[in-house]
UniProtKB/TrEMBL annotation:
GO terms for molecular function: ATP binding. Keywords: ATP-binding, Lipoprotein, Nucleotide-binding, Transport. Pfam families: ABC_tran. The lineage of its organism: Bacteria, Pseudomonadati, Pseudomonadota, Alphaproteobacteria, Hyphomicrobiales. Residues 7-240 form the ABC transporter domain. Belongs to the ABC transporter superfamily. This is Sulfonate ABC transporter ATP-binding lipoprotein. The keyword ATP-binding applies. InterPro entries: AAA+_ATPase, ABC_transporter-like_ATP-bd, ABC_transporter-like_CS, ABC_transporter_ATP-bind, P-loop_NTPase.
């Protein structure tokens, strides 16, 4: 049985027209993301990682080539609520409680009170935030706020989760903890995850597939299928298999680096 592609990009190019001239954010990207994969995008600043996620989410239009989400245009997939989006900063509304923040997309979609309550309870349980429903974002730590924003992205129960460097601003211990929680959540929910990061260990620890990118123009320089087992305790990061994949990612990053800045 072939596993269906959730995201399929073919020769995707995307150029921004700025007052300083054209900026090619993505050049000829061809990539398939299958259902249930955990795919990390890694590369230096400006290599088009966010732009690729935004193209999936129908927030940017390709200049040439094509991209399909669940076999349809990103616009139609967006209407079908095909994905949840987690941003770099938690981006919670400070005047809303945690449960009201998670409820926001459901309110916009006109969910019934009962269905809203059920979804809020379920997603907050998934990210271990039961008991914090009535708190305001400022009453939570940075890691908890980011978990709340993951809960908000999960509220629709979309099969695809787009995560743009969600843990970049957190200290390493909190990040480690959230990495293993995210893996657990991914296994429990069997979602497809696209995850942007600057961290080699984070990419290797989390992913089934690592997409290495390089800037000017943004392109894919390597796609690594991970050979690590599904079960990943944090100390897997010291194993030879893990270090070998990390070395290959580093090599890909070096090869695409121009050092001219
Ligand atoms: N709306 C826009 N208008 C003009 N240029 C843009 C726009 N959005 C992105 N760019 C440019 O496109 C390139 C790719 O940007 P993008 O944000 O996708 O990179 P990134 O790899 O996600 O970077 P970072 O790691 O810093 O988030 C950059 O050169 C950026 O300046």
């Amino acid at each position: 049985m072939t596993i269906p592609a959730v995201v399929s990009a073919t020769d995707l190019s995307l150029t921004f027209h700025t007052s300083d001239g054209p900026v090619t954010a993505l050049s000829d990207v061809t990539l398939d993301i299958k259902k249930g994969e955990f795919v990390s995008f890694i590369g230096p600043s400006g290599c088009g990682k966010t732009t690729f996620l935004r193209a999936i989410a129908d927030l940017e239009r390709p200049t040439s080539g094509s991209i399909e989400v669940n076999g349809q245009t990103p616009g139609n997939a967006r209407k079908d609520r095909a994905y949840g989006y987690v941003f770099q900063a938690a981006a919670l509304y400070p005047w809303r409680t945690i449960e009201k923040n998670v409820a926001l997309p459901l309110e916009i979609m006109g969910y019934s009170k009962a269905l809203k309550a059920e979804r809020i309870a379920r997603t907050l349980a998934l990210v271990n935030l039961e008991g914090f429903e009535k708190k305001y974002p400022w009453q939570l730590s940075g890691g908890m706020q980011q978990r709340a924003s993951i809960a908000r992205a999960l509220a629709f129960d979309a099969d695809l989760l787009l995560m743009d460097e969600p843990f970049g601003a957190l200290d390493e211990i909190v990040r480690d903890h959230l990495n293993s929680e995210l893996l657990k959540l991914w296994k429990e929910t069997q979602k497809t995850i696209c995850f942007v990061t600057h961290s080699i260990p984070e990419a290797v620890y989390l992913s089934t597939k690592i997409v290495v990118m390089s800037p000017r123009p943004g392109r894919v320089t390597d796609i690594i299928e991970s050979s690590l087992p599904a079960e990943r305790p944090l100390d897997i990061r010291e194993t030879p298999e893990f270090l070998a994949i990390a070395a290959r990612v580093r090599e890909g990053l070096r090869a695409g680096h121009s050092y001219e800045e």
